[in-house]
Amino acid sequence: MLPRKTFAIISHPDAGKTTLTERLLFNSGTINVVGNIKSKKSDKFATSDWMKIEQERGISITSAAMQFEFNSHVINLLDTPGHQDFSEDTYRTLTAVDSALMVIDFAKGVEERTIKLLEVCRLRDTPIITFINKLDRFGKDFIELIDEIEEVLQIKCVPMNLPIGRGKDFLGIYDIKNQNAIIYKGNETQIIELKKLKSLIDDQIYLELEQDIEVVENLCDSFQIDSFLMGKITPLFFGSAIKNIGIRELLDGFIKYAPEPLPKNTNISKIDPSDPFFSGFVFKIQANMDPAHRDRIAFLRICSGNYKPGINIYQTRTKKKLKINNALTFMASDRHSLDEAYAGDIIGIHNHGTINIGDSFTQGEDINFIGIPNFAPEMFKRVVLKDPLKSKALKMGLKQLCEEGATQMLQIYNSNDILLGAVGSLQFDVVLYRLKNEYNVNCILEGSNFQVARWLRFNSEQMQKQFISKLDTQIAIDHQNDLVFLASSRINLSLTEERWPEVIFSKTREINY
Ligand code: G4P
Q1: How far is the CA of 16 from the centre of ligand 1 (A)?
Q2: 264-362 fold
Q3: 143, 294, 328, 497: most buried, per Cβ within 10 A?
Q4: Is 477 helix (H, G, I), strand (E, B) or coil?
Q5: Average pLDDT value for the chain
Q6: pLDDT tens per residue, range 149-167
Q7: Pocket test for ligand 1, best of 9, 11, 14 (most atoms within 8 A of CB)
Q8: Which pLDDT score is estimated for 124?
Q9: Quick one: 177 exposed, middle or buried, by C-beta within 10 A (0-12, 13-18, 19+)?
Q10: Mean pLDDT along residues 65-69
Q11: Is the pLDDT of residue 366 over 70?
Q12: What is the best residue among 19, 26, 36, 39 to mutate for testing ligand 1's pocket, by most ligand atoms within 8 Å of CB?
């Protein structure tokens, strides 16, 4: 079995995640041609963009898993949606990785979405490798950039290499440890010792490099693997995804430093990847990956043991056994059946509505992987059906979309009103689009007075009854039959919390646990 590395790329939109993904695949020999890069201006689309709506809008909405080999390693790359409106999806994807590759635009530095994504990584101390992209343009001053990353993201930077030149004079990469320059000429590279470099390049570029080397020697800590694994320091790699400069060095660094599968938390104890029994959890459900198949795939991260076709696994939520014959692996838009898969791998399981996000699978042990939450929606819309006869199809469609985590359906207590809850408004667009295209249901969404939602927990049935009888117009039932309190404002929520001190109002809910 080859060692596994499972990671995701995180970045602010436009920093170059798609271009870099394609370059990683190219440099690992997985694809032979580049140039399918998503373009907002043309109808070309990225290998990782599956949904039509994404292509139309030029944003990456769905997240996917791709597997490829590099240097005797199997790499699982999980795609996270770039758009903030799909942050819940991104959050859950990040539960399934062991490290993250943060892409920063050299000119723009640390951007808002990167800050948020790093906060999520920090919740689990995920190790972060940083790629500073777009060195073929002029950007920030080197020290300023490091200061910015360290201050804003609260993580210490340890440059592993340095850029030689910037903008149109970006010539290559200087490897700090080996004291070698790697000069790029098209796809060819030439390795040159630092002392010999001086006579070969422009004085100004050499001087700048010398200054950068001095800064690193004097100001930056040395690379300590333990601090990296604790998420306290990040190794920096420089390059240009579009020019294919520094990508090979990044991949080599990634293989060297990114951790192999790490233990995962359950409600009982940590599961170690070397544990012999199969275990894993579902972090994503995706529909219509291939319109020809019209199916839904549950993405499962294997946490221990291995998969072989015909394996019997146990779904701890439903306590049912499931025989899996044809788990899938993915390479961009291609998919094929797997002969085997190991801890760290992501497998796709055909799902006919029986698997939910957050489900744990074992070989009989009653354990649940934890830390895969739903977040309370922050935006609400009332669903108005254009054709009232379609109400059954609407409910079915919404149920399935909820299972995928695309939205949250809230049925108002004692009423036929259905609200949709979302964390970002684009989620509503996706739901409307998919209801129409996949379920043939036309509806419109109207504004709602509610602004805040909290899941409810009661100490006693009596308390639950009392609460519901007093506040039934503000209570809804979600698609998993949990009770939700809806408030018109944060003040209204605080007042209710004060009045009902024994009731627990919760902002997140562990899925299926
Ligand atoms: P994203 O997935 O993070 O949103 O970023 P994406 O790869 O789509 O890149 C965003 C833009 O940045 C694209 O340009 C892409 O070509 C450009 N880009 C990516 N890497 C580099 C780089 O190393 N140097 C330079 N100079 N540009 C880079 P676009 O104009 O938005 O799209 P397109 O018309 O070029 O496809």
Answers
A1: 5
A2: Rossmann fold (3.40.50)
A3: 328
A4: strand
A5: 88
A6: 999 999 999 999 999 999 9
A7: 14
A8: 85
A9: exposed
A10: 88
A11: yes
A12: 19
Q: Token match 């961009």: residue?
A: 332
Q: What are phi and psi of 311, to 5 degrees?
A: -65, 140
- Equal fold, 10-61+98-257 vs 264-362: yes
Query: How distant, in Å, are the alpha carbons of 29, 249, 348, 439 from that of 399?
Result: 41, 46, 21, 12
Q: For domain 10-61+98-257, which CATH number applies: 3.40.190.10, 3.90.1200.10, 3.40.50.300, 3.60.130.10?
A: 3.40.50.300
The answer to whether residues 360 and 266 touch, using CB atoms and an 8 Å cutoff, is yes
CB atoms within 10 A of CB 277: 14
3-class DSSP assignment, residue 193: strand
Class for domain 374-510, per CATH? alpha beta
Q: What secondary structure letter does DSSP report for 222?
A: P
Can you read off the two tokens belonging to residue 478? 């979600």
What's the pTM value of the predicted model, to 2 decimals?
0.85
Q: Is 470 helix (H, G, I), strand (E, B) or coil?
A: helix
Q: CA-CA distance, 38 to 47, in Å (whole number)?
A: 8
Nearest CA-CA partner of 360 in 329, 402, 317? 317
Q: Is the separation of the CB atoms in 418 and 382 below 8 Å? A: yes
Residue 256's pLDDT is what? 96
Ligand 1 pocket member 18 (CB < 6 A): yes
Ligand 1 pocket member 139 (CB < 6 A)? no
Render the burial of 373-408: b for 16+ CB within 10 Å, e for the rest: bbbbbebbbbbebeeeebeeebbebbebbbbbbbbb
Nearest-CA residue for ligand 1 atom 30 is 39
Locate 484 and state its tokens: 């939700």
